[in-house]
């Protein structure tokens, strides 16, 4: 079985519908037929200042939501990055393999550091991609399911793996980016020309998995619609309605064309009520499951500890081979 690895940062109390449809849903699908490793990358979240209580809460909330959304501890290895110290060990080796100029060309680093300003941007932001390379190479992953914005980091990972292999002998599997389909690209429901995102959008435009059914119902009923009155998929003229059609279709499984027929002659109000119903009923059991998992913290920690233990044993084999090939005295 081919191995898959991906990571998600515990940077918010709740995932949103865009995270689920754009990434986690496909992680769930990849569990079948692959040996999947999914990592909550809490060390990566430290590249910006964090509040200790929030980091803890969000790490647990991320785990509970991943499980509630269908990541199964029987099928995949779900673990917390900081519980596997081998990530730091290999991270350092990767830093020593990376050119300063090469790291300076990472577009995510350039964007984030220029936003933060030279004085508040942390060194960890600069070395972030090398830690990410370690995340991937430790598990000898074949595929890395990520969004398009991560392509450059996966390319760097391949370069580093290839460089190490040719200098020190074959040690790492060269991973491939498995770019997640953007078919179900979900936009902000208040600002439907922008991607659904917690960092840029206002809360009213983001459908959160951990929100109460009542709150989500209200949000969707007040979603931004467009001029006209026909429920038609037309991204240029009707970005709001098109986005709601995409959301409905992704969750109900009905095609956009069927939905257009179903709502022919009905107004935006009826359509929004139907979308709200689909979203709320889809998320209701998921939220309930996540809440249940969070109420039994000991059990949740147990699942994570088991995942981390398995991850450590795989990761240690890679560290042994890496150190041996480097000439480290063992
Ligand atoms: N950088 C990724 C993101 O922001 C998160 C991440 C960290 C990751 N380590 C990884 C993704 C390893 C895939 C594989 O989305």
TrEMBL record:
Going by the record, the broad EC class of this enzyme is ligase
Entries under CDD domains matching the protein: TrpRS_core
Which domain of life does the protein's organism represent?
Bacteria
Q: Looking at the UniProt record for this protein, which Gene Ontology cellular component terms does it annotate, in alphabetical order?
A: cytosol
Keyword presence, Chaperone? no
Q: Which GO terms describe its biological process?
A: tryptophanyl-tRNA aminoacylation
Sites where the protein binds L-tryptophan: 135
Molecular function per GO: ATP binding; tryptophan-tRNA ligase activity
**Pfam families from the entry?**
tRNA-synt_1b
Annotated positions binding ATP: 9-11, 18-19, 147-149, 186, 195-199
Record field: catalytic activity: tRNA(Trp) + L-tryptophan + ATP = L-tryptophyl-tRNA(Trp) + AMP + diphosphate + H(+)
Might you give the EC number(s) for this enzyme? 6.1.1.2
Q: What keyword terms does UniProt attach to this protein?
A: Aminoacyl-tRNA synthetase, ATP-binding, Cytoplasm, Ligase, Nucleotide-binding, Protein biosynthesis
InterPro entries reported in the protein's UniProt record:
aa-tRNA-synth_I_CS, aa-tRNA-synth_Ic, Rossmann-like_a/b/a_fold, Trp-tRNA-ligase, Trp-tRNA-ligase_bac-type, Trp-tRNA_synthetase
Record keyword Transcription regulation present? no
Subcellular location(s) of the protein: Cytoplasm
* Job description of the protein: Catalyzes the attachment of tryptophan to tRNA(Trp).
| Subunit and partners | Homodimer.
What does the similarity note say?
Answer: Belongs to the class-I aminoacyl-tRNA synthetase family.
Q: What is this protein called?
A: Tryptophan--tRNA ligase
Q: Supply the gene name.
A: trpS
